[in-house]
Amino acid sequence: MSRVAYVNGTYQPHGEAVVHVEDRGFQFADGVYEVWSVFDGRLADFDGHMTRLHRSLNELRIDIPMSVAALTRVLRETIRRNRVKNGIVYLQVTRGTARRDHPFPAPGTPPSVIVTAKSISPARGEAQAKKGVAVLTQPDIRWGRCDIKTVGLLPNILAKQAAREAGAYEAWFVDDMGLVTEGSSTNAWIVDEHGKLRTRDTQANILKGCTRTTLMTLIEEQGLELDERPFSVEDVKRAREAFFTAAGAFVTPAISIDGTKIGDGKPGPITLKLRRLYLERARREAI
Ligand code: PDD
């Protein structure tokens, strides 16, 4: 039986329904969703899901894509077109499509809306309920695996957006102990008050940046001392220099943190030298 999906205003054959490659849901997990149970073609716990949808959208500052009445029509029409009597209807709303960049896209960028529906046999659920099912415990790591370069970047984009709204370029995450972990899309470094280079070790829960790794080789070649150890926000405020690294950003000087000048408030000499060395090496060795 042919299935149908609603995508941004039109009903399309399920197998052909697509969102743009730069949809922020796909690029950053920058979206929210709801699932309603369907009984005899009718939506269960309607208000609860609709209220939570609005709350989720509001928390993430994603525009409400359409009125409750309009959305209800779309949900019902998707259920109808898929001939779902019993099953679920799935709704996803993302921050829309824009050139990949962590901060929010320009105001007015329309959110993406997709709706799908599928039938679930009540008999199967009943059989399961009769016997009961097993559960397995798992460590709650949601999402404690920042070492994996996953597209689940919602916290990162919220941090980047907060930085941009505060007139800063990058956000540096700080852990429970007041120690800097990494940037929202970069690795964080300082030249500490004693002139020693410092960046957090990657045993910790951060992404092992490729730019960071190449820079470490250059640092060694230069005979500079590197301490792979976490530093606090206070250490940054006392530091002589600070910078961050990433593909595209290379080595970018940070001149203030939370409004406090770092060093003399200008890009430092070690930072600029490392930037030059990194760019030379990267250009030469790019294949
Ligand atoms: N970001 N940490 C995070 C959270 C990152 O997203 C990135 C890169 C880095 C640096 O990794 P590398 O040096 O390998 O680029 C560290 C990319 C550039 C991005 O999301 O656009």
Pick out its properties.
alpha+beta, binds N-(5'-phosphopyridoxyl)-D-alanine, D-amino Acid Aminotransferase, Chain A, domain 1, D-amino Acid Aminotransferase, Chain A, domain 2, five-stranded mixed sheet, single chain, six-stranded antiparallel sheet, 8 helices, 2 domains, 287 residues, 15 strands, elongated
Q: What is the share of helical residues?
A: 25-40%
How many domain units? Answer: 2
Residue windows where pLDDT falls under 50 for at least 5 positions: none
Bound compounds: N-(5'-phosphopyridoxyl)-D-alanine
The rough form would be described as elongated
InterPro entries: Aminotrans_IV, Aminotransferase-like, BCAT-like_C, BCAT-like_N, Class-IV_PLP-Dep_Aminotrnsfr
Catalytic activity: L-valine + 2-oxoglutarate = 3-methyl-2-oxobutanoate + L-glutamate; L-isoleucine + 2-oxoglutarate = (S)-3-methyl-2-oxopentanoate + L-glutamate; L-leucine + 2-oxoglutarate = 4-methyl-2-oxopentanoate + L-glutamate
EC number: 2.6.1.42
Protein name: Probable branched-chain-amino-acid aminotransferase
